[in-house]
Write a structure and sequence with these properties.
Number of strands: 5
Structural class: alpha+beta
Helix content: 25-40%
Strand content: 35-45%
Order of helices and strands: HEEEEE
Radius of gyration: 21 Å
Oligomer: single chain
Distance between the termini: 60 Å
Shape: elongated
Length: 108
């Protein structure tokens, strides 16, 4: 009988873990970025290098097309220099911003 209880507990724990993981996935997808636009990188302003992994630079985008929200003609966003996104001057990107901070960016 204890073997059946142990199996039942294992199944219960596995199903709870699976449901928590699926909830986290759904929650991440629902992030609302109120400003979305397609823009071209006009300028990358390098900051003073402090040697930190969290050094940033300012990327200035020209707004080519507003997709959502109120977006100015030019948008400056601080981004990690050694972050997950590689930005090149003159290329076009789809950008999502919330409270002046980058939510997501992808090359188009």
């Amino acid at each position: 009988m204890s073997n059946a209880k142990e199996k039942g507990m294992v199944y219960l724990i596995m199903s709870l873990l699976t449901s928590f993981m699926s909830f986290a996935t759904v929650t991440i997808k629902q992030v609302d970025c109120p400003q979305q636009f397609e823009g071209r990188v006009q300028e990358i302003i390098e900051s003073i290098d402090t040697g930190s992994a969290f050094d940033t630079h300012t990327v200035v985008f020209k707004n080519l097309s507003t997709l959502k929200g109120d977006v100015r003609d030019q948008v400056a966003i601080e981004m990690l220099e050694n972050g997950p996104f590689e930005i090149e001057r003159g290329l076009d990107y789809r950008i999502q911003v919330k409270n002046g901070r980058l939510c997501w960016i992808e090359k188009i």
